[in-house]
Here is the input.
Amino acid sequence: MTLIGVPLIALALIATAAAIAATTLLWSRPGRWRPVHRSAGVLLCEVLVVLSAGLIANRQEEFYPSWQALAGDTGTTATTRPRPVGRLDTEFGAGTLKAAWRPAGSAAWQLASTAEVTVPASYPTSQGSFPALVALGGRPAPDGLVRLSLLPTRRTSAAALADLPALLGTDLRVTGHGWALLTAPAWAGLAARFVAEHPGRFTALAVVGAPPPGFHCPPGVAVAVARPASEHGALPRGAAVARPGSGRGALPRGAAQLTGSWAAASGWAARQTPPTLAAPEVLPTAAVA
Amino acid sequence: MRLDGPAPVLISVAVVLLVAVLLGLAWDRANRYARTGLAVLSVLAVFAASALELNRLTETYPTWSAMFSRTADPASPIATTAGLHVVHGSGRPLGSGGRIVEITIAGRRSGMTMPAYVYLPAGYGERHERYPVIEATHGYPGSPKAWLRRLNALGYLNQEIAAGRMAPTVVVFPYQTPRALVDTECTNLTRGPQAETYLTRDVPAAIKARYRVRTDRAAWGLIGYSAGGFCSTNLLLRHPHEYAAAASLSGYAEAGIAIGDGSQNTGNNPAWRLRHLPHPAVGLYLAYANDDKHSRVDNQLLARLATAPIAVTTAVVAHGGHSDAVWRAMEAPAFDWLSSWLARPAVA
Here is the structure.
């Protein structure tokens, strides 16, 4: 008999009615046990009324749809995924934190030179996955992220780079989201299109230098512009939090202004990304049609 | 004696027994008035015992004083504190785990003045980092005490942070209604409590003013169970510039109350928002028990509607209904997930 089924509720209601009837009928029956059967009858009626009300409420709201649920049994334990493995993990160790990266198909990216990955010193021994920091046309500073330096050419397009995040995910222990992108001004447009083609992947985008006219970034991505102190005079007055604009040197809407160059932008970008964590506890996922 | 502890329930059950025995013994000798009195007393005792047990299960009124309405005092300064009153966990700042302190948040914009509990991770105050923040909403009926007592938030947070599956994070447990039996669903009720303003403006302002926390959107997230699950989903979709991610444990796709302006069918309806408005770039964690029909149907709908740039992660508990056991099973995975979607602790 199920906990939220009609039969159990019907049984409870019948039992309640029977208890009330019995208590009433026996109420005036003489004998030395009269106080006892009166008290017991009243208590039984009370318990059954509360029980019936509880069963009906539980059927309505399904707090405990089964006897198992009532016992606090969820039939589920969270599991920790095994340590993720990157295909190139073995290439890194103490002293070897940098490698050329030539995944299959990378020729289509039309880069000026071979892509280069650098892992943080903690990478070889860490159990977790790292957010990635992708740099177009420059070299990011060490900051605890997996860094990927690309030198694009005019023939490099966001469409050609479409498979890059997935390939990096196969080769290195990187997270699936919370990445950052740094770019030289020359590749800012490419960077913005690349970010837009991978919704949910990038959390931050920084331009190192004056962004080109009309530069803008998809919403939901933190944007910063890093420039040396000497160039700050060119900014609109009081532009610590930028004023939107479209001309050369104007800051994109909502952009943070950083003083410095690749190092400052790397530090800022790292602060926008999630921490490197041990493999999380996970529950089974739903099949959503 | 705690109102939400086992003692009041046991005492009220003893009273029920006592009245029943008295009724059996004294019935024949009692006059009509005494008999009526005994009958009324036994009904009242049963009611009281049931109500106290329900209160214990939901933490609706965690204390005796909570039974009486907390009145808003808009003149109070923001984030007044009732001292650094440690209610759970290590009393010393150098304890191995985190601790939970109680503060009072005087909401200037909402006019709601309520207590709140704040989890401070181990090492808080020793380093110069600013921490990410999670706001945790409770069910209806309920109170933040349910997170602390029934769902053991302190234990799960300490455990996940110590294991490195979660970054050290400040977690806030606010009230979402000034009167326990007024269901706000974390919205601004027309001619009622302004819960949304309180939760999305007053609480963040108080926490940013008082604690070493990050003030940027990337480091702020939401979590909630049951009605609080609806809250976290709805508030995330309504305030994607304030929060980066939300976890809903056995939440719903709609408020299930009348807000007063009809917005339960539009702007305060996550399913409507996902169908009719541009999607924000946020992370959304939808967890439910497979035998919790209402929540399952709603979460599957939300998971279907929430397309890119919303990143949805689902989590399913095999059975357990709509109960504490289910939320305890979801807690650690949900906190781990949230931490992986929030910006790291960082020096300002």
